[in-house]
Amino acid sequence: MTPEPDDRGDRTVDGDVYLSDMKRVLAISAVVACGVVFAGCGASTKISRVGGVIEIGSGVKSSSLVKSVDGVQAGTSAAVLRSRLGAPVARYPAPLSCWVYRAHQRGTDVRELDFCMDAKHRVTAISLGAIHG
Q: Looking at the 3D structure of the chain, how many domains does it have?
């Protein structure tokens, strides 16, 4: 029994060449999918505390820092913020109480991370900037 040609005319549906192509496509797809997953995960782990300074990995984008830093994001309590990042170097009072942390990211102007909180002591905003005064 001879296999029938597929739409391309030069390969067979159940032939070795077609199956090899399918395996190659699946293998490439799996590698790309793993790369995307691990690239996203790696960015969040490139934060560390060194001598009172939050060191930010070079691959971490500022757009992600204003959303989450070491698991601290909008809605996080002040107690959790302090347990994750330690004591702030400065605090600014109302209307939004902001805690200031020294930060550094090689090749950028990032010098601080500010975590502002509402009256319920929950983070409402994270911003990047230079050390005040």
A: 2
